[in-house]
Amino acid sequence: MATLCLTVNSGDPPLGALLAVEHMKDNVSISVEEGKENILRVSENVVFTDINSILRYLARVATAAGLYGSNLMEHTEIDHWLEFSATKLSSCNLFTSVINELNHCLSLRTYLVGNSLSLADLCVWATLKVT
């Protein structure tokens, strides 16, 4: 596989994507550069600009990193938390109820999905960091 190229918005870098790249750098060849928008160039014909699409693609090609779970149920749960981060957690109006939901979910476990770090944990943390 050719080297992937991730361009990140230098004014508002996607922390979740940068964390994911750091965790999978031993499993996939990827370069990161600063720019005006977030873009993952896979090939001349394939480009992703949506952060969640970028994250899913990276996690799927770097399966050894284990960030996208180990089965269909975990994939779906991770997708849920990616959308949760992009919508509910990013909303100031819902912040208190969303934090309560997170506290409830994490009350008996360390990770949002499964028994190891996943994209879900990285994206929720990244969204909380900038909120």
TrEMBL record:
<dbReference type="GO" id="GO:0005737">
    <property type="term" value="C:cytoplasm"/>
</dbReference>
<dbReference type="GO" id="GO:0005634">
    <property type="term" value="C:nucleus"/>
</dbReference>
<dbReference type="InterPro" id="IPR036282">
    <property type="entry name" value="Glutathione-S-Trfase_C_sf"/>
</dbReference>
<protein>
    <submittedName>
        <fullName>Uncharacterized protein</fullName>
    </submittedName>
</protein>
<dbReference type="GO" id="GO:0017101">
    <property type="term" value="C:aminoacyl-tRNA synthetase multienzyme complex"/>
</dbReference>
<dbReference type="InterPro" id="IPR042450">
    <property type="entry name" value="EEF1E1"/>
</dbReference>
<dbReference type="GO" id="GO:0043517">
    <property type="term" value="P:positive regulation of DNA damage response, signal transduction by p53 class mediator"/>
</dbReference>
